[in-house]
Amino acid sequence: MSRASSRGGLAADQPIGTVQSPPVAGADAAVARTEGSADGETDDAAHPSTAYSPARRALMLLILLLVSTSSYLDRSMIGVALEPIKKEFGATDSMLGILSGASFAVLYVTLGLPVARWADRSDRKLIVTGALTVWSAMTTLCGFATSFWQLALFRIGVGAGEAGAMAPAQSLLADYFPPSQRAKAIAIFMVSMTLGNLFGIAGGAWVTQNFGWRAMFVAGGLAGLLLAPLAFGILSEPRTLAAVPPAVEPFWATVRALGGKPSYVRTVAAMALFFGVAFGPMTFLVSFMNRIHGISIGEAGAIAGLCTAVGGLSGNLVSGVLTDRLSKRDPRWLGWIPAAGLILIAGLLQASVLVPSPRVMIVLLFCGSFVVGAAYPPMYALLHAVCGSSRRVTAVAAALFVANLVGLALGPVAVGVLSDQLANHIGGASGLRYALAAVTAALYPAGFLFASAAAKVSADLER
User: Fold this and answer.
1) Mean pLDDT throughout 135-140?
2) How far apart are CA 33 and CA 51, in angstroms?
3) Quick check: pTM over 0.70?
4) 67-85 pLDDT, tens per residue?
5) Any idea what the CATH number is for the domain that residue 427 is in?
6) Rounded CA gap, 172 and 189, in Å?
7) 443 inside domain
8) Which band of pLDDT confidence, cut at 50, 70 and 90, is reported for residue 268?
9) In total, how many domains does the chain have?
10) Which stretches within 297-442 are classed as H helix?
11) Is residue 162, in this structure, part of any structural domain at all?
């Protein structure tokens, strides 16, 4: 589709005359997204979001939420299948850690930054919908794997597709909504994590118990393939609304700029530790319930899915509204909220795997999920606040690169290896229990890193 036809197709969503008239200072500012208000946020009146009606913005947010839900669904369902895969292919916990973490992260991590640089210059709608198609197709193929290593290869393909999702989607979101509504929009968007975990874990457990783990992967992949054309037809690229190209920094200039912001660097370090827990202990949660408490995979998946869904959704929405209000008074709240949250999460999750009572475990898991959900909106809002608009996709992708390299690639592997080692020394399934408690301790230093980042937020805001 040509630039002209793209603009013509979007004319109904913008003020009369915006496309036909030559670029003026206001339009140029909208595309360049220069952030110059007193508190470091973009002037809402000069923001690309003014080209869309509130109803259109809400619809595009819904589509991005569904795309991200598909991503988290395909990512989380592997945890449900670990026990059946372990039995079918004779895998160890270390091998399961590689399957659920390292194999997915190989291309997910390495392709994230190149795709982000591409997205900073190109049509983000095409990148997001293309990525959705790739990871959904590869998820479908997981259902046809005939060996452990073939399954690992397909999981590498899933990771390759998902490398083009989160950063471009968040960049579009930041252009669809003005800065004064950004944390709330991010909170709604991050509900996708909750929904993805619900359908991937609870729904996946039901499908696995009744139809087998292969049917679970096929169902999840086909759902994403059906969503792809809908996303392509509804999402919009705001850059096509003006006749000037996006302002993009050279790569090394972006690296130097971000590296010179202490709040950004400390936030990325904290996210790496946080992701290590989110994709390490949480991946083995269904296996933990099955081995330690004797809960069936279907029931364990329902418990884990509902706890993360209800708790995470509540935390997301409450935190989104609270973050918008508090950060207007003092931007340091963008760091203070996740700092307190991560330290609290650590205690709740450690207690949930150590208590002998399944009922108490469920209560603690629910409370931990609520706080996990509350940590995400300010975490990402902090990145957006300090990164600068011309490098937004790259900044988010760089943060996810480091976080996933440490958290996604190493988190599940660390749990699996430690579980095998502890099982050899103390025997039985208790090795997994203490491995989960040990790796979850990474959240304590993560919380202190966020507190340290909060002290530098005001100085690092883009002007």
Assistant:
1) 95
2) 13
3) no
4) 999 998 988 888 888 889 9
5) 1.20.1250.20
6) 11
7) yes
8) very high
9) 1
10) 297-306, 312-329, 333-354, 358-387, 392-426, 430-440
11) yes
How does residue 255 score in pLDDT terms, banded at 50, 70 and 90? confident
Rounded to whole angstroms, what are the CA distances from 332 to 211, 263, 446, 454, 463? Answer: 49, 10, 16, 5, 16
Q: Is 19 helix (H, G, I), strand (E, B) or coil?
A: coil
Nearest 5°: the CA angle 190, 101, 396 is 40
Burial 314-350 (b: 16+ CB within 10 A, else e): bbbbebbebbbebbeeebbbbbbbbbbbbbbbbbbbb
Q: Could you tell me if residue 27 is inside a domain?
A: no
Domain span at residue 444 reads: 52-233+248-460
Please check the confidence at residue 244 and state whether its pLDDT lies above 50: no
Does 383 fall in a domain?
yes
Question: For residue 431, what pLDDT is reported?
Answer: 85
Does residue 210 or residue 404 have the better pLDDT? 210
Residue 434 has pLDDT above 80, yes or no: yes
Please tell me the total number of residues recorded for the chain in this structure.
463
Gap between the Cα atoms of 434 and 432, Å rounded: 6
Angle, CA of 192, 248 and 130, to the nearest 5°: 40
- Position 148 scores a pLDDT of 92
The encoded tokens of residue 44 equal: 């809402």
Output the six-digit token pair for 364: 């603690």
Q: What angle do CA 109, 174, 28 make, to 5 degrees?
A: 115
What's the distance, CA 250 to chain centroid?
A: 26
Amino acid in the structure at residue 235: L
What's the rounded mean pLDDT across residues 48-63?
Answer: 84
What is the rounded distance in angstroms from the CA atom of residue 198 to the CA atom of residue 305? Answer: 4
